[in-house]
């Protein structure tokens, strides 16, 4: 019994880690599910369903003709940054018909990553507008499909009309280190934004 009391006391002495909720957002087919899956330390929760003939008149597949499945609710992953800080990642659905989910997913979120496909930059405008209107800090991650980044960061910033405080990073949603760097840039922004309030 003494051993179990010691374990119970040790558990009570440890405080639970702080958790930070981060949204991974963007348009249809920009790589949100891929990003959550590549950076999560756990097997991610996915709500992907196959694209069907019924959606042909609804889903715009221009530029992502090879896409075979889509997120219908959310993706979820987790990253332990340290013993006392854990990031919870929530990937949003991309099609317009599922955007009503974004309001619920945004509750309690401290920040967001907006994934951008430079082949279809217009698919990122709704996500940028969503977070700007709600005052949720975000970072832009330009997903380099096929490993290509044809435009420099400043051109992308200008084309998206982003203020200087918004981090813009080139990334590859398939690579863990690349996604980690995006999340670090977002956390740095959250810390900078919180500094004047302290």
Number of strands: 7
* Main pleated sheet: 7 strands, mixed
Rounded average pLDDT? 83
What letter string, H or E per element, gives the SSE order? Answer: HEHEEEHEHEHEH
Name the poorly predicted regions. Answer: none
Task: Using brief descriptors, characterize the structure shown.
seven-stranded mixed sheet; globular
What does this structure look like?
This protein is α/β, with parallel strands linked by helices. The protein contains six helices and seven strands, in the order αβαβββαβαβαβα. The chain is globular. The model has no long low-confidence stretch (mean pLDDT 83). Helix 4 links the parallel strand 5 and strand 6. Strands 2-3-4-1-5-6-7 form a seven-stranded mixed beta sheet, with helices on both faces.
Please give the structural blueprint.
Elements: H1 2-13, E1 18-26, H2 32-39, E2 45-50, E3 69-82, E4 85-91, H3 100-106, E5 111-116, H4 125-134, E6 138-143, H5 153-159, E7 168-171, H6 176-194
Parallel strand pairs: 1-4, 1-5, 5-6, 6-7
Antiparallel strand pairs: 2-3, 3-4
Give a short synopsis of this structure.
With 198 residues, this protein is α/β, with parallel strands linked by helices. Helices cover 32% and strands 26% of the residues.
């Amino acid at each position: 019994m003494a051993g179990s009391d010691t374990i119970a006391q040790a558990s009570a002495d440890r405080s639970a880690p702080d958790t930070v909720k981060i949204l991974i957002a963007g348009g249809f087919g920009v790589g949100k599910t891929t990003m959550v899956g590549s950076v999560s330390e756990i097997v991610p929760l996915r709500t992907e369903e196959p694209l069907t003939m019924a959606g042909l008149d609804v889903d715009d597949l221009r530029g992502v003709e090879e896409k075979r499945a889509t997120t219908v609710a959310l993706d979820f992953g987790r990253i332990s940054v340290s013993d006392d800080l854990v990031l919870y990642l929530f990937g949003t659905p991309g099609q317009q018909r599922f955007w009503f989910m974004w309001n619920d997913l945004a509750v309690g979120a401290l920040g967001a990553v907006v994934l951008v496909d430079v082949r279809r930059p217009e698919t990122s405008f709704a996500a940028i507008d969503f977070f700007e209107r709600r005052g949720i800090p975000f970072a832009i991650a330009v997903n380099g499909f096929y490993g290509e980044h044809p435009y420099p960061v400043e051109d992308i910033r200008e084309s998206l009309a982003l203020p200087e405080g918004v981090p813009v990073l080139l990334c590859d949603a398939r690579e863990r280190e690349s996604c980690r760097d995006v999340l670090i840039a977002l956390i740095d922004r959250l810390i900078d934004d919180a500094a004047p309030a302290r």
